[in-house]
C-alpha cells in the first residue's frame, strides 16, 4: 500500500489538508492523520496539491497520431457519411506521443474517438493515458459514445465530392433516416426468433436507441446545437454537445433542455465561420446557468498537455477555480459515464491521482507526479 500524507486534497467537492491511502489499483481511505499499518510506503507531500486524475472529455489522442503525418491519421473515414460501426478502439495506438504529453500534465484518462467528417462517425471510448501497450487493457468504457457531426465539416467533405450531405438540411435528414431504419431493424430483431439479418451499422446504433450510450454531437453554431436537440427529442437518444462554441448564446435553452456540453477548444483562431463567437466566457456562463459542462482540448488540435491552461483561461474569464477543477474531473467523468470509477479522490475509486506544485491552472504550476491505477506513470514522489 501507498500512503500520501499532508497533501492539499481537492476531492473535488472540498479542499482540505489530509492523507490518501492507496491499496493496489484503488483508493482505500481518504482523511486526516491516517495511521499506516503493516507494509505501507509513506510519502510526505506537504505543500503540494493533490487532485483526482485530470480527464479530457473530448480528444482524438491515439487516433490522430502526432509527429508522423498522414500515416497516423485514422480518425475519419471520408467515403461514407454514415459509419456508426467504426470503433475507436481499433485505431488507438498507445505509444502515440500525445499520451505521454497527457501524463506530463496530470491527465490520467481521455475520451477519444472519430473525427467529424461524417454525419455519424462511430464509437468513442474512455481510456487511461498510461499503462499497457495493449489498448484493451487501458479501457475504462467501450463504447462510451456515438460520434455525430452537424455543420461545416460533413458539408465540406461530401459537398466537395458532389455528394449528399452538402447542406445542413441533408445532415439532419440523413440522421433521421438512419435512425428510423435502425429502429425498424431493432424491433424486428427483438420480435422474431427467426431473425437472421445482420447490419453492422444498425447493430452499432441499438445501444444509442436504448439510451445505453449518448450521442456525442459535434456542433459549434447555435443552430446546429438546436438541431441536435430537436433530433434528440424526435428520436429519443441521450445527447452531449461537443465544442459548443455558441453554447453561451443559447444557455437558457440548454438549461431548459438539460443538455450537457463539453466546451472547447477555446484556444483557437477563428479559422472558420463556426468559430466566430469563440470565447473563454462560455464555461462561466454555462456554470452560472447551472448547466453540466466539461472543458477539453480536442487534442491534437490543441496539445493535450495544455488542458489545465484551458481551465486557467476560463478562470481568468470569471469561472470559479473549484468549478474549473470539476470541469476536468468529476464533471468530465459524469459526462463520459464513468463517474462511479474515476473523477474523485474517494475510497473505492481508481487510484488515479495528479500531484502538483502550485496551481495547475497557471504557467507556474508543475506536475510533480501522475499516478494511474496506483502506479506512478510520470514524475515521482519522495
Report low-confidence residues grouped into runs of 5 or more.
Answer: none
For the termini, the CA-CA separation is 15 Å
Fourth-level CATH superfamily: Metal-dependent hydrolases
Radius of gyration: 21 Å
Q: In total, how many beta strands?
A: 16
Label the CATH architecture. Answer: Alpha-Beta Barrel
* Residue share in helix: 25-40%
Question: Shape, please?
Answer: globular
* Percent range for β-strand residues: 25-35%
Task: Kindly report the average pLDDT value.
Answer: 97
How many helices in DSSP terms? 10
Class per helix and strand makeup: alpha/beta
- Top-tier CATH class: Alpha Beta
Order of helices and strands: EEEEEEHEEEHHHEHEHEHEHHHEEE
Quaternary state of the chains: single chain
User: Domains counted in the coordinates: how many?
Assistant: 1
**Biggest sheet, open or closed, and with what strands and sense?**
8 strands, mixed
Q: Which fold name fills CATH's third level, the topology? A: TIM Barrel
Amino acid at each position: 500500500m501507498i500512503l500520501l500524507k499532508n497533501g492539499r486534497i481537492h476531492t473535488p467537492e472540498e479542499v482540505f489538508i489530509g492523507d490518501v491511502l492507496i491499496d493496489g489499483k484503488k483508493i482505500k481511505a481518504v482523511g486526516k492523520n491516517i495511521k499506516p499499518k503493516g507494509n505501507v510506503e509513506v510519502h510526505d507531500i506537504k505543500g503540494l496539491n493533490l487532485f483526482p486524475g485530470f480527464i479530457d472529455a473530448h480528444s482524438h489522442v491515439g487516433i490522430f497520431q502526432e509527429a508522423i503525418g498522414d500515416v497516423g491519421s485514422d480518425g475519419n473515414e471520408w467515403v461514407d457519411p454514415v459509419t456508426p460501426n467504426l470503433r475507436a478502439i481499433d485505431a488507438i495506438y498507445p505509444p502515440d506521443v500525445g499520451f505521454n504529453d497527457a501524463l506530463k500534465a496530470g491527465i490520467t484518462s481521455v475520451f477519444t474517438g472519430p473525427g467529424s467528417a461524417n454525419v455519424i462517425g462511430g464509437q468513442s471510448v474512455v481510456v487511461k493515458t498510461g499503462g499497457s501497450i495493449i489498448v484493451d487493457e487501458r479501457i475504462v468504457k467501450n463504447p462510451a459514445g456515438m460520434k455525430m457531426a452537424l455543420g461545416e465539416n460533413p458539408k465540406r467533405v461530401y459537398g466537395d465530392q458532389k455528394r449528399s450531405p452538402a447542406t445542413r438540411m441533408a445532415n439532419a435528414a440523413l440522421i433521421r433516416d438512419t435512425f428510423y431504419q435502425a429502429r425498424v431493424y431493432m424491433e424486428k430483431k427483438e420480435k422474431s426468433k427467426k431473425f437472421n439479418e445482420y447490419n453492422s451499422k444498425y447493430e452499432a446504433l441499438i445501444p444509442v436507441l436504448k439510451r445505453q450510450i449518448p450521442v456525442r454531437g459535434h456542433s459549434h453554431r447555435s443552430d446546429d446545437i438546436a438541431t441536435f436537440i430537436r433530433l434528440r427529442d424526435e428520436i429519443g437518444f441521450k445527447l452531449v454537445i461537443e465544442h459548443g462554441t455558441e453554447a453561451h448564446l443559447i444557455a437558457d435553452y440548454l438549461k431548459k433542455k438539460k443538455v450537457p456540453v463539453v466546451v472547447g477548444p477555446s484556444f483557437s483562431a477563428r479559422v472558420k465561420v463556426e468559430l466566430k463567437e469563440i470565447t473563454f466566457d462560455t464555461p462561466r456562463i454555462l456554470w452560472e446557468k447551472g448547466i453540466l459542462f466539461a472543458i477539453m482540448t480536442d487534442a491534437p488540435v490543441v496539445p493535450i498537455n495544455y488542458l489545465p491552461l484551458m481551465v486557467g483561461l476560463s478562470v481568468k474569464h470569471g469561472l470559479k477555480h473549484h468549478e474549473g477543477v470539476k470541469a476536468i474531473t468529476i464533471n468530465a467523468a459524469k459526462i463520459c459515464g464513468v463517474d462511479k470509477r474515476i473523477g474523485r479522490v474517494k475510497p473505492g475509486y481508481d487510484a488515479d491521482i495528479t500531484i502538483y506544485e502550485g496551481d495547475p491552472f497557471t504557467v507556474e504550476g508543475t506536475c510533480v507526479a501522475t499516478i494511474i491505477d496506483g502506479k506512478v506513470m510520470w514524475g515521482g514522489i519522495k
